[in-house]
Amino acid sequence: MSNQSKAGMMHRNINKDNTFLFLSDVNSILVSGEDTNGEFCVVHCSVKKDDGPPLHLHEKEDESFYVLDGEIEMTLGKETISVKTGEYVFAPRGIPHTFKVKSNTAKFLVTAYPAGFDSFVKELGVPYEEGLEDHVEPPTPEAMQKLLEVSKKYHITYPGL
Length: 161
Description:
The chain is mainly beta and 161 residues long. It is 13% helix and 39% strand. The strands form 3 sheets. A 7-stranded antiparallel sheet has the order 8-5-10-3-2-1-11, with helices on one face. Strands 7-6-9 form a 3-stranded antiparallel sheet, with no helix packed on it. Strands 4-12 form a two-stranded antiparallel sheet.
């Protein structure tokens, strides 16, 4: 998976080996914790209109979001803002946050530090096949239970669930 030179430079693209259907999002792990000795990870997210996670809180990671294309409505603590193409948001650990896609689709980079979000995506996601995201059903009670169990392992909680 790693395209790393002897000098330490890394070059990677979105491909079949690093892309997962994660809940209803298509997430590609561009930089994993394995690449950075656990320091950080970078995940490219492609999300459809009105999608987004439930309100959640990371106990161990800070996250940043950089919108490449589209618009998301980001709630961080008690504040809600519109984040558009070319804009960046920092979401510190310990503060509940969520987002909802307002445009037809949105593409953004999530950087989590330390790493861990990449492993969470791999554990909960399924290898991506073209069009898979078009057949996502609302989560079953079993899927929600798995989400909660796996989240606990990664110190992610859901206030209100």
